[in-house]
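Q: Predict the bound structure with S-adenosylmethionine.
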Amino acid sequence: MNATGAKDQHLALVLQQLAMPPGTQSTLWIVDESLPIESLVTIPGAATLTAMTNRYDIHACLQSRGVTALLSDFDFSQLGEFQRIVYRISKEKLVAHHCINQAIRRLSQDGELIAIGGKQDGLKSIAKNAALTYGQKNNTRKIGNSYLATFRKPGILTDEQFLPSNDYGRLRQVQHKGVSFYSKPGVFGWEKVDRGSELLTTVLPTIQRYMKSVNSVLDLGCGWGYLMLATREWDVQTRCATDNNVAAVDAAQKNFAEHGLTVDCVVDDCASNIGGRFDMILCNPPFHQGFAVSDTLIEKFLAAASRLSRRSTRAIFVVNQFVPLEKHADKYFSQCRLLLAEDGFCVYELRP
Ligand SMILES: C[S@@+](CC[C@H](N)C(=O)[O-])C[C@H]1O[C@@H](n2cnc3c(N)ncnc32)[C@H](O)[C@@H]1O
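A: Predicted complex:
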């Protein structure tokens, strides 16, 4: 089965689990980018569901389908108890551990946590460790290509009975390649400077020199803010950084403040609520959505960059070498020039 097929199968299983058995009063759905929910026209039991997500686009999609959706960095502190909690596990293990740790504590007396995932997602070993940690029988079944693990509300848990989640919610100082920054689990490549982004920054001094002036910069899909930080010595009037992930924007905001940079930080889906035009747009677009490779995402980022460009704008993109950026960019930009190809990455300059 290909990635899309498996993805659809996990989604089908999640939807089946959301259709509440008679007598269920409250269901919480934990959703992140690993489920292609935008393809859903209706969601079973939408009116009685509460959903929690860390992604702006998912939050907007859920609300438009009539679900009560909460947008946060998986902050469960304000939530009550639920009889049923459904979670398609996240790609990053620490996020999955955090969500399972929190979810199990929010089950009502007769409540059940249902975790779904594939073999490659580590569901089997996460479920085994969770059962050990909470002192329960490992209750994992295979359904098609998906695994489904169920957990009951445990007895009283001690402070030690947590799956390791590295203090998930806390921003912490990280050092990598001589760069010191704040970040946390759940943010893209949270413990490192991405090699592709690093290569992108090496072309910036030359581009800045030949552009007459750079008065405004947009960091599109900012993560913890590395690309924008590369412009910190420039005399720029307007800076804007945006990401779909709440945790990323929190981290970026902290990093900009640490460097005394004034940056408008926006949680948004591909800058959909951002207006105006920018002189320079910096972007290392995602090419995965959750577990699967997505061409649609690249297109969406190019479309956003094009909408926010004026004639003199330079959009600098870095992508993995196997992403055919020229082919996609053709629709949105008149020129797509390869500036650098190194270590499996390609840096391009796009001109409107
Ligand atoms: C490859 S990472 C690059 C992060 C950062 N610019 C860097 O250089 O480290 C792509 C970023 O795009 C964000 N992203 C994914 N989908 C998005 C969307 N629809 N709108 C805005 N940002 C999105 C991800 O959360 C991630 O932070």
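A: The pocket of S-adenosylmethionine is lined by residues 57, 188-189, 194, 197, 221-223, 226-227, 243-245, 248, 269-270, 284, 286 (CB under 6 Å).
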